[in-house]
Amino acid sequence: MEARRGARLSTQLGALVYRHGGQFYNFEGLRAFKEKFDPEWQPIYVAVPPRANLVAVAADLVALIGGGVTKSLKTRQD
Questions:
Q1: 16 touches 3 (CB < 8 A)
Q2: pLDDT tens for residues 65-76?
Q3: Residue 26's pLDDT is what?
Q4: For residue 32, how many C-alpha atoms fall within 13 Å in the half-sphere facing its CB?
Q5: CA 41 to CA 26: how far, in whole Å?
Q6: What global pTM score does this model have?
Q7: DSSP readout, the chain?
């Protein structure tokens, strides 16, 4: 995700979450692990209504990807 000037707000928000969301989810570690399998990265889009609550949508996505709300909210153990 690129947070370049003039990008859509949702793109900028996604880049911000990726850059600063490490305390909630290990994006870099997941990407490094998946790189071992030489994946072909493809963008995936989520369609939401124009006036959707983006925080609620993001929380739902985190819960979906992370295995549930409780598991997603636990802090990482380093």
A1: yes
A2: 777 666 656 655
A3: 82
A4: 4
A5: 18
A6: 0.41
A7: ----TT--HHHHHHHHHHHHGGGT--HHHHHHHHHTT------------TT--HHHHHHHHHHHHHTSHHHHHSPP--
